[in-house]
Amino acid sequence: MKIEILKGGVAVAEKSAEDNLYLVYEKEYEEGDQIRVTTNEKGFYRIQLDATLAPAVVYSEGGAYTLSIPFGQKHDCYNSFAFKGQMHYLAIRKAYECETGYRNLAFNPYDSHENDAFFPHTKANIETRGESVFASRNAIDGIIASNNHGFWPFISWGINRDPKAELNLDFKRDVLIDKIIFYTRADFPHDAWWDKASITFSDGDTIDFNLKKHDGPQVFSIKEKKISSLTLHDLIKADDPSPFPALVQLEVYGKEA
Prior knowledge:
Blueprint (H helix, E strand, L loop, with lengths): L1 E6 L2 E7 L3 E6 L8 E6 L3 E6 L7 E5 L2 E6 L19 E7 L8 E2 L16 E4 L32 E2 L8 E18 L9 E8 L4 E5 L7 E20 L8 E11 L1
Antiparallel strand pairs: 1-2, 1-4, 3-8, 4-7, 5-6, 5-8, 9-16, 10-12, 11-16, 12-15, 12-16, 13-14, 13-15
């Protein structure tokens, strides 16, 4: 495994190890800097790429994950202290068996548009104004603050008032799931909500979920199914004057297949 800090594509700091690794970078990040984490084999890894971000167990098929250090509005979806200052702590190790049991399989605060290496990974056909505070990655970052919007920690997947908005969640391997939890945004009266949302799973099944005006988790148990991805779609807005429903968090509970 290897962690690198890149400037112009060239490593200015790096460290390697077999299965347990950290890097302390003692300089301020500059615009254009990137973090690159390389795993040598398929499996589960526990990563933490900034002290303000929660550690997460992610799945990798081996290869390089790259995160461009966010600046400007791209930084707005993170804690104001994230990636700031002159001391940065990054770590990765192979996950322990006890960390890969029944859990929220959708959790990954290190997801981004450019992520194609650490899973789960989200992709959406609509994000409000292209702003980071409304990006699809916010729906799996573990943050459930919902009674405001537009700045951290009140971040969400915003659909720009488009009922054809869809969010895809890719696990990149087969998993067994039996519970879905929605956190919809609840900045009332600014916000509306969805009466119904549908999820189509990679096994071909579609399940409709009846939602309500609620600040908190909306929990749905389903018959266990083996899937590798899912798509959230057909978001039916409630009859409410506000045109602004949004998704704060989508949790998918299960275990490895």
